[in-house]
Write a structure and sequence with these properties.
homodimer, alpha/beta, 11 strands, Aspartate Aminotransferase, domain 1, 7-stranded mixed beta sheet, 44% helix, dopa decarboxylase, N-terminal domain, 3 domains
Chain lengths: 490, 490
């Protein structure tokens, strides 16, 4: 006798509520420009609205959804707003959202090939095709000795690369008996802080990361890198790893990867290329030169969840020698490794990442690539770069402003010709205004405004509005803010 | 003049295709029992079906969805089938899927409180309420010195705990200049392999993990632990960390956490409790004793994405002293830490995890807790344990079978009274049959069948069917498989 009592949502109710949720999301995208881009919630405000107790008895889905509207929405910073120009883009799209929905609905685990073969094989194939689209070398394909895997973030990708480098250098000794503080890694002063964090996580020590000076374009100075490596070797240390960046977070600087790659090749160092921010540009033939020199790289990462309409998390990570990665992260002792895995007939992706479990993240990427097609993706990437170019021209034409770093893709670093304090005030006023959200960085010690053009629906009208707001706000503040106050802020 | 050309999915199309996808998923759940639970795809089969090229021009969503049906479905192992009894449950539910959908639709980043305050505050509040529901100590709440965070997996949670322990012991020295191979951690021979992997990742060395022997119930022997710690200290090593498990993956064994906790407390070791598999039981007052002794723990983890109807990834991780965790994982040097973060007024969750970016994962957990209500969740957890009890009784009543480990919750370890080879053949035949999927482990050197009762819709009829299939397959194989062949397999 079957007991049929159940608190589960029936499939009929799922159909009904699921469609309500789809409409809710469509409504959200249709109205997202009506919300202040940067959340105005004060600390604790959202938490207080949620109540102090879990419900004893279940609540209706409509009530839950109403609470999402009333309590969650006011506490969000709207990353999908066309007026979002802060940090980095984390753009999404219809096909990506529906791919994530399908992944959640199927609820399969991809930790081993056998726990859901399609979960592994779609990922491997899509990353092979994407490697080709980006002009990455043959060695990165699963058909050779390499292969690609989806990580949650570029932070995790660089950590995995670093551990693979650590073990290649130590012959698995660090994995077995621990690190000894003699291994050294290299990046530039502009490299994302996730590498410094990874040095700590991996037991190598943050102080063993050498942050090499950059040139006037904020790109790593390869000469200085070579000198530092020799100096470290002379001091009895073991150089193991170099990270170069194609499009730094701070200013979108492009490191000279061919020069760096040759040094790594001569010195026998693991060379990782972080193209998280800007790697998408290489899907356009005219920007593929971005990847010149990548043939020297042992690993490469770019984030479709930043600038390719695929919602977070989807960070694509390739290695030229998958055995080095798997050897560093596999938990099976070698004598238990199976022939199928070793031969490359199947990949067990748990051995390509830190966690064991994994969702079917390749679905959303596969949906995006197919729905847009290569030309559809290229169109929007080119459009973002074109709009960025217009913005650069407007800034250059205004004598009150200056561009402070090259803008090769879709990020502009600029400042009002005035004190740091005035620039900070301009940014704060703009963000409080709610129509746009932009953030800052420091370059050559100065406070610099950053404006990124990367949300899916950011169009000419939005960039025009942003620029007009920036210029008008600067002009207004210049007149009303006493100079002494500005100086105090500097 | 706005350029309106676009390859994006319009909101109208999103409404239409989104509803198609919702119906597709509902249809899937209505028919999931018609598919073989374990995928029958051969290596390379799915990949070959996907074609060798990315489309130049975008494809219609209906075509993409049709491919998902024709090419993906046959390559899946159906984790949501009521006949899935393998590994661990990774169950999901309507409200969880729709929470994930909302998270994908909003597309916000929760790396900092300010990048979307609601993303952080819902998570903090929900984990506070959940801590109360599980009977976890006051110290784990955000209102004290502790707090909870959602990790992608218990693997990542134990890695974070281990790094916090490493830094507490070394006074941030390991983070700064690297590990020195003298720090030692402890677990049992039955602890999940993710800890051994974490020892390697964290630069501590896998050989510095002491796997303590277990008792006849496969639970860690606290006496032996104390002896090993003393012996390591005498050898000049630094014991730093102990992991105890509530419900091991292999046999669901429950370590004596009060005894282990007292030892950790006396010795000053970081004590982590991994309740990933079975912690959900503590939401029922009659199983809350599971957590007796957890007041000694520095950190605790349980996975709603295993046995609480919340789709992967959702691993809840609490610490008693958040400053220790944040201090180990924050990339800001201490002199730059801000007062708001330190005072607990806001949490920046990037400092509670390995990656920088993070999705709004708390939404699905919040949806599940509200939709089911506390009593709804308890009903289904009790029901799974009750069904497991029935299965145990049937096995015990059959003289051909034996139970080989206690079954405190929803996992049964048993074997046919025959050779290991025969048991392996039984498992393989059952899995090839497609109606159920179960996996194995080794206990006391013998091949043991594991049957887990944890999928959302697994009911009495499914457990009955599974048992009848097991018994009938065993009986049939015992008669037809020549003894010599069985012995060769052993």
């Amino acid at each position: 006798m079957s007991n049929t009592k159940s608190y589960h949502m029936s499939t009929d109710d799922f159909r009904r509520h699921g469609k309500e949720m789809i409409d809710w999301i469509a409504d959200y995208y249709e109205t997202v420009e009506s919300y202040p881009v940067l959340a105005r919630a004060r600390p604790g405000e959202v938490a207080a609205s949620l109540g102090d107790e879990l419900p004893v008895h279940g609540e209706g889905f409509s009530k839950i959804l109403r609470d999402a509207t009333e309590k969650i929405l006011p506490g969000l910073t709207h990353w999908q707003s066309p007026g979002f120009h802060a940090y980095f883009p984390a753009n999404t799209s219809g096909p990506a959202i529906l791919g994530e929905l399908l992944s959640a609905g199927l609820g399969v685990q991809g930790m081993l090939w056998s726990t859901s073969p399609a979960c592994t094989e779609v990922e491997t194939r899509v990353l092979d095709l994407l490697a080709e689209l980006l002009g990455l070398p043959e060695s990165y394909r699963s058909t050779g000795n390499g292969g690609g895997v989806i990580q949650d973030s570029a932070s995790s990708a660089v950590l995995c690369a670093l551990i693979a480098a650590r073990e290649r250098d130590s012959g698995q000794r660090s994995n077995r008996v621990g690190c000894d503080g003699t291994q050294v890694a290299y990046c530039s002063t502009q490299t994302h802080s996730s590498l410094e964090k990874a040095m700590g996580v991996a037991g190598l020590g943050r102080a063993n990361l050498r942050q090499i000076e950059v040139d006037e374009r904020f790109a790593l100075d390869a000469e200085r890198l070579a000198v530092q490596i020799r100096s470290d070797r002379a001091a009895g240390l073991r150089p193991i790893f170099v990270c170069a960046t194609l499009g730094t977070t701070s200013s979108n600087a492009v490191d000279p990867i061919a020069d760096i790659g040759r040094i790594c090749s001569e010195e026998g160092l693991w060379f990782h290329v972080d193209a998280a921010m800007s790697g998408t540009a290489a899907i356009c033939p005219e920007y593929r030169h971005l990847n010149d020199g990548v043939e020297y790289a042992d690993s490469y990462c770019f984030n479709p969840h930043k600038w390719m309409f695929t919602n977070f998390d989807c960070s694509c990570f390739w290695v030229a020698d998958r055995a080095a990665l798997v050897g560093a992260l596999s938990i099976l002792p070698e004598y238990l490794a199976n022939e199928a895995t070793r031969s490359g007939a199947v990949f067990d992706y748990r051995d390509w990442q830190i966690p064991l479990g994994r969702r079917f993240r390749a679905l959303k990427l596969w949906f995006v690539l197919r729905y847009y097609g290569v030309e559809g993706l290229r169109y929007h990437i080119r459009r973002h770069i074109e709009l960025t170019g217009k913005l650069v021209a407007w800034i250059e034409a205004d004598p009150h402003f200056e561009i402070v770093a090259p803008a090769p893709f879709n990020l502009v670093c600029f400042r009002y010709r005035g004190s740091d304090g005035l620039n900070q005030r301009i940014m704060e006023e703009l963000n409080e205004g709610g129509e746009i959200f932009l953030t800052h960085t420091r370059l050559n010690g100065r406070f610099v405004l950053r404006l990124c053009v990367g949300q899916a629906r950011t169009e000419l009208e939005h960039v025009e509005k942003a620029w007009n707001l920036v210029a008008a706000t600067a002009e207004r503040l210049r007149r009303i803010v006493p100079l002494t106050e500005i100086d105090q802020l500097s």
